[in-house]
Amino acid sequence: MPADAFVAKLNEQIAHEFAAHQQYLACAVYYDDDTLPQLAAFFYRQAVEEREHAMMMVQYLLDTDAPVRIPGVAAPIVEFADVVEPIRLALEQEKRVSEQINALAGVARAEGDYSSEQFMQWFIKEQVEEVATMSDLLRWAERSRDDVKDIEDYVAREQTGEAADATSPAAAGA
Ligand SMILES: [Fe+2]
Ligand SMILES: [Fe+2]
Fold first, then answer.
1. Sign of CA dihedral 125, 136, 56, 110
2. What's the rounded Cα separation, in Å, for the pair 16 and 95?
3. pTM given for the model
4. What distance in Å separates the CA atoms of residue 59 and residue 170, rounded to the nearest whole number?
5. What is the distance between the alpha carbons of residues 80 and 77, in angstroms, rounded to a whole number?
6. Which ligand is in closest contact with the Cα of 129?
7. Ligand 1: distance of its center to the CA of 102 in Å?
8. pLDDT-flagged residues of the chain (< 50)
9. Spacing, Cα 49 to ligand 2 middle (Å)
């Protein structure tokens, strides 16, 4: 079984991932309501990815006979000042998650829990990509804040969704 300290922290992370799912869903609905279909689709996709992350963590705990508890989730922010704000919020969230993921890898290493340390490697790589995606999008959105059509075109052109990743951990229920 993985180290107790790692199991406790991974259960907390499952809650953060589900909270990220809810937050991205709130962003998607905000854009959908404003008839910005590309931004809406982008955030709907991001939401699904966050749920996937949570379910990968659930599967790891199941596989290793560690306790797993499906958590309650903090309420997302649902009101935004303008079209840029959800993206700024998303970038902050991704940076925060990167710190959490790195801390998880750190706990696994400190505990000499090599399986858990290895499990975290995929998430470390994923966070680098997610922070990069959101900071690119934020830069574009800030530059084009008065021309929402241009932001929509950018998302349609550059953010078409990720190809299937054969290296990703298995997700529970998948
Ligand atoms: Fe995530
Ligand atoms: Fe993410």
1. positive
2. 13
3. 0.96
4. 7
5. 8
6. 2
7. 12
8. none
9. 7
